[in-house]
Amino acid sequence: MEHSYRLVIACPDQVGIVAKVSAFVAEHGGSLLEANYHTDNVTKQFFMRNEISADSLSVSLEAFKDAFQPIADAHNMTWYMRDSKQPRRVALLASHASHCLADLLHRWRSGDLLCDVTCVISNHENLRSMVEWHDIPFHYVPMPKDAEAKAKGFAEIDALIQRYESDTIVLARYMQIIPPAMCERYPHQLINIHHSFLPSFIGADPYQKAFERGVKLIGATCHYVTDDLDEGPILEQDVARVGHKHDRDDMVRLGKDVEARVLAQGLRYHLEDRVIVDGNKTVIFD
């Protein structure tokens, strides 16, 4: 993959923003590898993602950012610019189920997901051998039902995230509710896979609820975690068709494939800076 810088912008919609940003990039020798724009006609917000060839710029990344700041200030932009050669540092959390974790580790090892996996944290021991085969640190943090003990467990998890300097935390079927303090500490950094096509069947055991309802489609939702359970901004969704011949176990089996695929795609959007959060919605430049 070519070395690039990703310039991501959100601001109130105004005439001339694309021209001004494009002219600025050109004035500094920048060659655009990819350019995406979107205007929300309801909120009147404008969103932009430009991928610029790093080798084409006539100035350093820091000099480019310093020179761009006055334009950002003039147009009330929320923005950042990231170097594609500095991968995100991803901590993976899992419970007993292995399918999402195994899929992410395979994609990471094969180079399909460009990131640094810093560690795996689990409230069960059964995944240790698989994780350590990948030469990734594994940390067992039990989660008793007692509220005080659970709070200590999450404090330990938070300390591990900071120790490994992780900037992205993926809940790969981690079956614990993240406390509000952690949600606030890591806004748009906590990524979850929910085994339901949200907003249907929020909470526990959605496949049983889907079976009882007689649905014809089951699905999975990858979303950012907030302190509103299963209601954070959505990154990706997909479905599988089911019918009257499928029981709950069939739905679980089919659902696992969807879950793994949806989580990997949602994480990829995040790693490639293709997501802009707009309230409780997302703009995805795929």
> Order of strands side by side in the largest beta sheet?
7-6-5-8-9-10-11
- The best one-word shape is globular
Overall CATH class of the largest domain:
Alpha Beta
CATH superfamily of the largest domain: Formyl transferase, N-terminal domain
The total of helices stands at 8
Distance between the termini: 16 Å
Structural class: alpha/beta
User: How much β-strand is present in the residues?
Assistant: 25-35%
Name the CATH architecture of the largest domain.
Answer: 3-Layer(aba) Sandwich
The total count of strands amounts to: 13
Largest sheet: 7 strands, mixed
Weakly predicted, low-confidence segments: none
Q: Characteristics of this structure?
A:
2 domains; 286 residues; Rossmann fold; alpha/beta; four-stranded antiparallel beta sheet; single chain; Alpha-Beta Plaits; 8 helices
